[in-house]
Amino acid sequence: MSRRAERNKPTVGAGEAKSRGYRGDYIRRRLLLKSFKGDEKGYKTLLKLPETVLSGMEVLWRQKILCDIELITADRKRICAHRLVLVTCSDYFYEEFIEAPSGALQIEVPDIRGATLEVMIDAMYTGKVKVESDNVDDLMLSASSMGMFMLLDACEDFLLEHLGKDNCLQLLGTAFKHGLSRLTEAALEIAAHNFNSISKKLLFRNLPIEHVAPLLKRNDLKVENELEAFYRARAWIDEDKPCRLQHAAEVLSNIRLPLLTPAEVIDNIESCAYLMEIVECQRLVKEALHYHLMPSRQCLLQTPRTVPRLHATECLVVTGGAPRLETDHVRDHVLSFDHVTGKWNQLTKIPAPRHHHAAIVLNGFMYIVGGDETNDVIAPTRTMFRFDPRNGSWIEVAHMLYSRQSFNVAVLNNTIYAIGGRVSHDECLSSVERYDPSSDTWQEVKELNGPRRCAAVACLNGKLYAVGGSGSKALSSRVERYSPAENKWEILKPLSIPRFYAHLCPISGHLYLVGGATIDAAEKIVCTDTIERYSPMMNQWTFVCRMTQPRSEFGSAVIGDKIYVIGGYDWTVCKRLVDVECFDTGTGNWSHVSEMSENLVGSAACALVLYQPK
Fold it and tell me: What is the structure's pLDDT at 15?
């Protein structure tokens, strides 16, 4: 076989090329180039080669040199071109010349006018296209039919530049028609932000369900309340009730009825007779009313309809704490940290002050559990309060079976576990109890293998871990793991250094043990400055790094892959701390975040999603 023949030998069969298509073949070639591992030493890039080739092809085209195909448009205009350029830029021509070649020197291009095809061919040779309001519709239709997606992208860019409040609904239809995802999102965003005005227009009431449903579903829909959204949706149904009743349930499913009061639901939605004749609409109303009947269950009833249409941010939250002087009152504040301003703001107040309590988040609700309400004697409480950040309300839920302070809690299988703790100066608990929000009750489960207070607690992979702590007048290095299925604790590899008042943080399949205090060789309480990481698969503890500021009795929370530590006490130098630090488990670096306004101990922290107007 000659070299020329070998070079011209096809590398794939027609059937295989057809199965891939132009775009698949193009992607394959790009991936092969990116995966090339050969020795590139000595190779130099030929600068401006793509531009040179493109400009050269343009010169040849304009002078009609080496053109090997003539295109005949719907209005009988004739345009000469190079097959190579056409198949490179268009799926349609790829199929015409590569997958089903006929060898013809002329082909007809139906349904495209000459002026439009000239613009498209010009774009193939120049890499530029003049898009105007007069031709953008024709260009998009033709680009879609010819599989010229780069041109479609250029038209989408043009429409995005001219998108505004006055034409967002019209261009939303254009975006849906041509599958323009960027324009769809942008048009929906503008329509959502201006919903109060555009929803009163006839154009909105004439939208198809395919446009109305995604608009009503958006979190950034600007409405005073869900009643406003409901009445706009109802007006859309009423515009053509006989045809649109079939979509009523879909429309109502995008109204966040649980965020309305029971009275608002009954007076405005349940009173709409034609809606209540639809079974699915009845179910949605019942869902909203049930949401308010048993508040303790609300954490288990979360759906997209229970999320406010507000800007949601996961924030660092600190609760309560004990001041230095016993005569000072225990704090009841709940502070949230604003990462933009770097300041702490008061979010709310706990119904009762407390310190050395526990704070935990379950499905978006914050629970404050146990702790002491006074600063002069140890007299822990059994109470638990739940905070709803959606409306800023508190409710008191079932009390624990045992009073306790200096303990930790964890969430497992939509329940809250309270582990160990202290009752008095001399008495610690081995008790473990579990709160079930579905029944608003606490239930005892298998106790620890000995009384412990100040143990670090976390859940990972469906198991509950209790690490370290203090009990029976001695520090503990014990590590225990609880299986809810077996209701049994098993003892794992112990810590190398016993510690109490530490925190256990689950991140990326591991447990990070942070801070705490221990007893040194001189039998003095000192803070540990190490972070250790536990691997459940290896049952192994590994040293990670040292803390920039050792601390115990501090608050801690995890946001993403970062561990935040707040305030606390340094036993080594007998100093109360106000600084807030962050450890990035991805980089292994510590950073200073801010400072608290008071040097409190026994505060509890968590990461809570808060809602603010956008």
Answer: 42
